[in-house]
Structure prediction request, 97 residues.
Amino acid sequence: MTNEKDKLKQNLEKVAEERGDQQAVSYQDLFSPMFMQKNTSFATIDVFVRELGLKDFQEIEKIDDKVIDDFVKKETKFNNWQEMQQRAVSEYMTSLF
Prediction:
């Protein structure tokens, strides 16, 4: 069974595949400032990551799922990290069409 971090990678790859791109969508595109400001108490994904206590987005893979889920529930409109990722992918895909 894949964990939530693997699902994020799969989601990014799926978005890139559907767009016909050879390279993956960046996390900054997926979690755009507009998305972050609308759905969280942070201006950007980088501020979100720093407030989570990490140096950069790639460190999310190393953090315990419960820690990030609790942070997301407290600081965003989402119940957990998976839900936040799914909404980001959905909104990103919608913006392409």
